[in-house]
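[Meeting: bench + compute handoff]

Bench side (C.D.) handed over the final construct sequence. Compute side (W.E.) agreed to return the predicted structure before the next meeting so the bench team could plan truncations. Sequence as handed over:
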Amino acid sequence: MFDYYTQKNARIELISFILNTKDVRTTLPPGMTVLDFVRYHQHLTGTKIGCREGDCGACTVLVGDVSTGGLRYRTATSCLMPLGNAHGKHIVTIEGINTDDLNPIQQAMADESATQCGFCTPGFVMSLAGYCLSHTASTTANAIAAVDGNICRCTGYKSIERAAGRVAELVRLRQDNESPTQFVADRGILPAYFATIEERLQEMTANLNGELKQDDPVAQRVGGGTDVYVQKHDEIKDASIRFLADKTELQGIWQDGSQCWIGPSTAVSDLVESPVMKQYFPDFKAYTKLVSSTPIRNMATLGGNFINASPIGDFTIIFLALDAVITLSDGVQNRELPLRHLYLGYKTLDKRPEEFLVRIGFNLTANTTRFNFEKVSKRTHLDIASVNSAIQLIVVGNRITSVKLSAGGVAPIPKRLTNTEAFLTDQSISEALILEAVNVAQTEITPISDARGTEAYKRLLLSQLIKAHFIKLFPELKAELLLMP
């Protein structure tokens, strides 16, 4: 099927992908969202328009991809996904998982009275379908976690949790060596055509001649789109775009001796699943649960978090404490820059317009290194931080030999607290030391009152988060002495 669109002063590219069961080729603007494409150009209206900010999950779709070798499905919020990022993939809407009768996921939702007005229901069903197509362990907790990006205002969540538990029971029948795609097709959990998609995608991608091309030197660079489509939806939908999310040379996580290198187009979910991150940061998955939702983590890129330059960017704060170094390129020359030097002022970067991120690196932790991340927001999950903070300490005996401490929400930029770091270095850990370090930190910050809290509140939060770092990393400390007024 073809759609045609004339766009002034922009280069049109043919975007090819599989939508449910059919091959689609379109010359519609690649900056259009997948949500608008499926609803207004394919008339698949089961995918709902809700918040258009990736918060409600009513627009959830599945994205199948073979770029990593085998076929992998992840959920995505189609309101923030540019059509260009669908190139070479399998996009599945709620219509694409229908069978002659209700499929077992839909039946579980109906049997448990997990739907009322029904507006949010397609998103929940799609998230649970994504769980069935994943390699995640078949537990009720994991099934419930799969719908962490979906919001319902009608039923209350216990009925939805019961439905998720029933879906988890279905997945428990899968053998460890059994392909999730083949399993759902054979068991009738999802339509039989899912068993043919990997071969179809492999054939399609072999004939795509690589990524979408964009020769415009000032084209907007877009990774996952999870922030830019919230901030600039109307502006970017018709813009010239250079898509970065699928550039293989900008992806991956690898270890080189004591160094870890990460491609800036690496999605947050890839970080969570990385053996390197699991080995060196056992709590990393717990940190990421404080950051957005599963569909957003599936889309959002690490480089996008850095370049967005938000003063409260969660991963920026984490990697500042890791003392990360970034490599910028203008296409001809590369230059390395400590991440802490990237931020010159509010949303102002030491980066020329033609430069882009090539890679991110940091030293891997040793046995004497301890790391922690803390965040406070109005909601524990799925919310922007009021204040966040991360710390990396090297401790020999009871003495701090090195410390990196970062904080967000307390200055115009994501900030390293270098004076506090200097104060803590070569000191023996004690409750008195930590209390004094909190006082030093207060001299380094300039929070403002805004929708996420007053200046006084943010100052208090940072003090408590610094104390929380030490209580978490050194359980022998007397928490009651640190936390009392």
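W.E. noted at the follow-up: The chain has a mean pLDDT of 91. C.D. will use this when planning the next construct.
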